[in-house]
Here is the input.
Amino acid sequence: MATKKPAIQTRIADNKKAAYNYFFEEKFEAGMVLEGWEVKAAREGKVQLTDGYVVIRDGELYLIGCQINPLHTASSHVTPDKVRTKKLLMKKDEIKRLIGKVEQKGHTLVPVNLHWKNGKIKCEIALAKGKAEHDKRDTIKDREGKREVERAMKSRTR
Here is the structure.
């Protein structure tokens, strides 16, 4: 009996600003429609996701603001657009459920990261709710508290 290998996932880009600005309620994985030069640039790590957001148009998901910087060695017959709108692929019933949730006040779709899964680039998106200013301060306070605890533990072990 052959055992199935687990899916190998490696991160391409993270949207660290999203966790600071939003509370994540649910996360979803979506495929992406990319051109060849974009895949090559993603392999080289030339992707920036911090300003990206997801919109719903005509019952389909699109990633806007994700910047993929073209390689200089890419084909000369292609004119790369580094901020091209990219289509996200999900099942129709999942998209309908997301449309219903996004129409609620305060909810939005945010790209969390891009990663490889079985040789394909996937985008993890989150159904998110915006944080208030005092929540952001709490996040900073928690982060600094964890850092201090780690420093104390590190100096104690020396």
Summary: The longest helix spans residues 133-157. The mean pLDDT is 79. The two ends are 49 Å apart (CA to CA).
